[in-house]
Amino acid sequence: MDKLFLLSLLGLFIIAYGVSGAFVSDSDIDMIKELESFDIEEEDDDDVYSYTVPVWRSERGSKILMNVDSFDAIGDGVTDDTMAFRKAWETACSTSKSVLLVPKEKTYLVNATTFKGPCKDGMVIQIEGTIVAPDEPELWDPKFPRQWLEFTKLNAATFQGDGVIDGSGEKWWAESCKKNKSRPCKGAPTALTIDSSSNIRVKGLTIQNSQQMHFTIARSETVRITGVRVSAPGDSPNTDGIHITQSTNVVVQNCKISTGDDCISIVNASSGIKMKGISCGPGHGISIGSLGKDNSTGIVTKVVLDTAYLRETTNGVRIKTWQGGSGYVRAVRFENVRMEDVENPIIIDQFYCDSPTTCESQTSAVKISQIMYRNISGTTTSKNAMKFACSDSVPCSNIILSNVNLEKTDGTVETYCHAAQGFGLWCCAPIGETA
């Protein structure tokens, strides 16, 4: 069995190479220490409560339960329960310490809706049953082309329960240009969106078969996502599991994600993101990006993935940017990751091009620096266990490798490297060559 084994002991023993081959500087040591020490607080299970009694306006402790059935929801999976959900929301939103209950053993058909705040603090959305979307794209409300269930402008709200949010996405996938080349490429709804909110907790829900992305956190801060399950077929197009954009102080922990695109994707204007205890596969791995599309600016900083298992994914841990963009990705730590039969375990791609036509070569790029890979092991299905395809004009810098052990059962593995510099790794081979 041939094996790629890269080991760099950081701290007491550092083997460091820059452009000139000089040893690491004091500023580099400070940078490494900062990367190693960055962390944010995780969720405490003891702080999450459970309210499952399906009674409207019954007192349970200091909470007031509001059952959607009491607002004339039917829950047979056929009758449109959208208006009942909207009425229940309006009442719960205006009531202090309310619990909006979707009871178990029922299925509620709900059309695209925005549930708007601000609401009274301390609201709980308790989902025990199933919420299902209409399955006909032609009948979708044109006022909501990119969303199904959107919650906006909330503070100190909790989403929890053992229920299911089901996007009924099969017909949407069939119409995607990625599955049907004769169809135009266009967006589709996200199943669950939390937008412009703060101090949000999401625990235990299952989100499945979304029309496109499953769960988006947008323009929000201080969000804790725990024990969420995301599920869609591996060939379902653009069905990212958890998508984080323009958000800060977000923790995703103990989540199991199986989908047709990135298990977790982190994009522009996001900072202070921690992922821990993540199971991913099938899917496209855990990604920062894409960033820089259409010459835009992308900025992502302070991201940690700590403890993950990826199985039979297209990518492992990935950073992807388009040519022509600007901005930067820096202060990222991927550690304690186990991979099994992953095609591209470690990849930085500054030439990303998810387009039906060839992308134009451009010199500007999103700057990528201060990226640490530590304690990463497992198996790859491709020749290149690590791929660093960086820009000539904006090369990757301060790439840190520590205890990376990747192997392939049926051949030799290599590292593809272009315009990347770092500690334990230094290479600047031309495109098409390996180093």
Task: Give keywords.
disordered C terminus, 35 strands, Pectate Lyase C-like, signal, cell wall biogenesis/degradation, disordered N terminus, eleven-stranded parallel β-sheet, 435 residues, 3 helices, single chain, 46% strand, mainly beta, 24-stranded mixed β-sheet
Task: Give the topology.
Layout: E1 3-6, E2 16-17, H1 26-37, E3 59-60, E4 63-67, E5 76-80, H2 82-93, E6 98-102, E7 107-109, E8 113-116, E9 124-127, E10 130-132, E11 147-152, E12 155-160, E13 164-166, H3 170-174, E14 190-195, E15 198-203, E16 206-208, E17 215-218, E18 221-226, E19 229-231, E20 242-245, E21 248-253, E22 256-258, E23 264-266, E24 270-280, E25 286-291, E26 297-311, E27 315-321, E28 326-342, E29 344-349, E30 367-380, E31 384-389, E32 396-407, E33 414-418, E34 420-423, E35 426-427
Parallel strand pairs: 4-6, 5-7, 6-9, 7-10, 8-11, 9-12, 10-13, 11-14, 12-15, 13-16, 14-17, 15-18, 16-19, 17-20, 18-21, 19-22, 20-23, 21-24, 22-24, 23-25, 24-26, 25-27, 26-28, 27-29, 28-30, 29-31, 30-32, 31-33, 32-34
Antiparallel strand pairs: 1-32, 2-34, 3-4, 34-35
Question: How would you sum up this structure, described in words?
Answer:
This protein is mainly beta and 435 residues long. It folds into 2 domains: 1-37 and 287-435, Single-stranded right-handed beta-helix, Pectin lyase-like (Pectate Lyase C-like, 3 Solenoid), CATH 2.160.20.10; 56-261, 3 Solenoid (Pectate Lyase C-like), CATH 2.160.20. The protein has helices spanning 26-37, 82-93, 170-174, and strands spanning 3-6, 16-17, 59-60, 63-67, 76-80, 98-102, 107-109, 113-116, 124-127, 130-132, 147-152, 155-160, 164-166, 190-195, 198-203, 206-208, 215-218, 221-226, 229-231, 242-245, 248-253, 256-258, 264-266, 270-280, 286-291, 297-311, 315-321, 326-342, 344-349, 367-380, 384-389, 396-407, 414-418, 420-423, 426-427. The strands form 2 sheets. The chain has a 24-stranded mixed β-sheet that branches. Strands 8-11-14-17-20-23-25-27-29-31-33 form an 11-stranded parallel β-sheet.
